[in-house]
Amino acid sequence: MRVRASDISARTIGDETIVLSLSTSKYFTITGVGTRLFELLAEERSVEDLVGAITSEYEIDADTARRDIEAFLGRLRDAELLH
Q1: What is the pLDDT at residue 15?
Q2: Origin, by domain of life (predicted)?
Q3: At what angle do helices 47-57 and 33-40 cross, to 10 degrees?
Q4: How far is CA 52 from CA 6, 22, 27, 48, 63, in A?
Q5: How far is residue 46 CA from its own chain's centroid?
């Protein structure tokens, strides 16, 4: 999966990313580790890829990371921001 780059506009300032869906005209704010996940999703990634990246960059265990990543991905899917 990856972010739908063709119809969104995103800007990151510090650890906050503002995303505008051009197809729905909705704004989203992503903060903290979500900003890093959003960056990683610029390329095709699996959940396991994301878990590996986040556990290597942050002090978090794989089970907690997976649960949080899956919840984050669910929100992105609901907002129609993923392929």
Answers
A1: 81
A2: Bacteria
A3: 130
A4: 27, 31, 29, 6, 11
A5: 12
DSSP character string of 3-37? B-GGGEEEEEETTEEEEEETTTTEEEEEETHHHHH
Contact between 66 and 47 (Cβ < 8 Å): yes
Contact yes or no for 2/45 (Cβ under 8 A): yes
Q: How confident is the model at residue 45 (pLDDT cuts 50, 70, 90)?
A: very high
Give yes or no for residue 69 having a pLDDT over 90.
yes
Write out the two tokens for 20.
């505008």
